[in-house]
Structure formats: C-alpha cells, structure tokens
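Re-run with default settings, no changes from the original entry. Doing this only to confirm the output is reproducible before filing.
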Amino acid sequence: MIALMSAEKDLALTGQDIVRLFFPDSDIALEDHADHQMKIAVSVAKTRGLLTGRAVLAAGDSIFTEEASTDKVPIFGDERNQQKRLVKLAILRVLRRYTDKNPGPWGILTGIRPTKIVHRLLDLNWEQNVIADYLAAEYEMSPGKVNMLLEIAARQRKHLMSPEETGQVISIYIGIPFCPSRCVYCSFPSCSVEGRGALLVPPFVETLKKEIEEIGTFLRAAGKGVQTIYIGGGTPTVLNCAQLSEVLQWIREFLVVSGTREITLEAGRPDTVSEEKLKVAREFDVSRISINPQSMNGGTLSKIGRHHTPQQILQAVELARRVGFTNINMDIIIGLPGEGVKEVEHTLREISGLSPENLTVHTLAVKRASKIKEYGHEYKLPDAETVSQMLEAAAQAAGEMKMHPYYLYRQKRMVGPMENTGYAKAGYDCIYNIQIIEERQTILGLGGGGGSKFVDPDTWYLTSQYNPKDPQNYIERISEIIARKKSTLTNIWL
C-alpha cells in the first residue's frame, strides 16, 4: 500500500499515474495510515513568480526529497496545470531515485494525446528545436519520443482545421456494435451475434438509418460539410450483405457531400468478409478498408477469442485487392498473451508480404471490462522491456514498407508504458484518425456507442456526448438521442 498525500487533494490525484509507472499493481491511498509501506507527500510553492513542486518519499528509515521548478523554462498554460506538471516531475524524480529504475521513455507524459502539446506550441510559433528542448526538460521525455512527436505533428499540420473551417466542416463516426464473438482484450461496446445480438441487428439497422437520415438532413439545412466518415464497431461487416448495403446507401444519400474526402469501413474480422460485401462497399464509395489480424500466429488468435485463421486474413486482403481497394489498413496488437518478439516479427513479415497502405500498431491495454483483466492469472503477458523490443521491430518493419508515422495516442493500463502508432505510405494518411486524436474538428458519433465531440473553434474547448452502448437502449432512446445532438449543434453554431 502506498500513500500519496497533499494538503490539496487534486495535486495528489494528479500524481497517481506517475506512481503506477513504478508500481502498477500497488494500491494507492490519498490519506495516511500506519500500515502504508511507502508515503509520498507532495506540495507546490511560489516564490517571486516561480513555481516549485516538491515530493518527499518516506519508506522505512529512508527519506528522499526531489523538486521540480519553472526557473529555466517559461510557464506554458494556466498556473494550476503547471503546478500539477511540477508535482508529477517531482514524483518521477523521487521514485526514480528510490527505485533506481527508469519507467519508460515518455517521462511524466501519461496523457492520451501527446501530439496536442506540440500543436499548441506550434500555434504559438515556437520553433521545433525550442519545442524539443521544452519537452525534454519539462516532461523528461526521451529524445526518440520527442523526435517522433515532432515528426508526426509536422505531417498533421496540413490536415488540422482552422477556427473558420471547424465551424463549417465536421466528420462522422458510425458505430455498429456487433461482433462474431468477443475478444479477450476487448472493452469496446459490442454485442456478440452468437447470442441475443442476432435478434437486435435488424431493428438496430433501421434505427441507425433513422439517425443518419435526420442528422444528415439537419447538417445540410445548416450548410455544414462532412470531411470524413468512419464506420467502426464492433465489426460492421458482421452485417449481412443487404443490411450493409442499406446502411451505406443511407450514408451516401444523407451524409456524403462533394467535399467528403474519405470513407473508412472496418472489416476487422476476416471471418466476416466476403467478396459480395466488399463489392457493396466499393459500390457505395468506401475508399479505405481495415482488415485487422492483430496477430498472424494461429495459436494466439485462438487464445484471444478470434475465430479465424491467418490464412483467412490472407484471403480477405486478396479479395479486397481483387474488387478494387487501393487503401487497406491492418491492425496488430503488441503484447498479446503468450507472444514474444519472434511471434511479432513473424506477424510483421506476413503483413509486409501483403503490402498494406496503412499499419496500425497497438500496445495491449488491459481494460477493466476485458476478460484478460477478469481472468488475468490465465494469461501470460510480456514485460515492458519485451514490449519495447516488439514496438521497435514494428517501427523497423513499417519503415521497410516505406511507411511513416502519422498519428499517435496512448492508453491507460498498457502492458508497457508506450503508445499506439499509425503508419502510412505517402499519400495514405487516414484523415479521420488525425482529426479524432487532435480534437480540432467536431466529430458526430452515430450508432451504438458512438461518441460525439463538439469543438468550440474559439477556444478548442470540447463538449462530449455518447450514444448508449447497448443496442436495445439505443433503439429505445433514438428520438431523445437525435434531439440532443441537434440541440447541441444549434447552440454551438448560433
């Protein structure tokens, strides 16, 4: 048990993620008790306009103290955020000293969207070398991660919305929350069609068509354009051919405009892919398709609950090429149960032979709602050092396929304190992925579990809304869901 204490509770709360980098399985309390094995007290002082964060660690007879100050770098952002950042730095330094361990290359940066920091500094006309020095000094990030963020941000700049564009052009996410079966790592809103989900698919499709029609009609009346559309899930291709055709027809009729640049369809499970469905997708102008093996090792696929073989993945990609898809993404997951570096290298070799235009490399995150979390003792996961080696192998393979990193995000409870990275060949960056991560464009989430993020172009402030995850709940509440979206959009655009 570890006690993390402060006279100001939010300062202690903000340091929990740093403590977990060193002690991921320990309980953390925000008050002192006699049975705590370690106590960390944090505070912030301000002297002559300069802030200093302090962390004092007591364990047994040992006491360690570390500080972090703004005396050499200008304060960026509001003062309270600076105080929290300095507390994180002080905790990182004191725990690094106490454990004699380095918890990873990201320093104190535990947030989901690290590139947003770079974009905010670029907005202030900071030079890249100044940003690099700032990230290294104020977040204690490794040079490799600093350079990666700068490279990705530079590629993304041309796709980011200006305040004027943000008020006129949006993107759309459409959630199809059904899957053939549930993977052991999954926490996404999905309903297996092996059970009651099969009965919910037809009424769900009709309800989704209603939401697409009403929201699309509203957008056109307001004179707003749709830049990108992403159809995800779940597994959208679990729909039969007729259902998929209906959904895509409604998307084209009510959402697509002359300026729509990209339509992505998740066909993540190759056991749901057929030539007929792929032809339907092409007929309705789907420009990008995602076929996601996660691993090309048959034993792993069985272990994680995916009821398909590596051979079916090869066949699905071949079918997609045959019907005319020229932009294919493939997802893999680093850190799956029982896999080591050799298994990941095998997956990368197999994928390289398929020559996809995109490769998305995820680091396994152990979500609370996943079977891996619930039955953790049954799954052997790799350690952080092995995960780092796997990610290096993936980055090398992406480079050999002539891909560059174009978006990046992080998650809580990863098996290693690393990141998820999207790689693409020149000209194939997924614009939707950039917009959803950088949060400078309003994105409407339709369908089951769809999340909407409404952006205020004057401040980049976000307002979020979420559709129900459960298909039955979504069906029953659709009128309320549509009315709420329209009301929020009206308030933003007035």
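Residues 225 and 319 are 32 Å apart (CA to CA). The chain has a mean pLDDT of 92.
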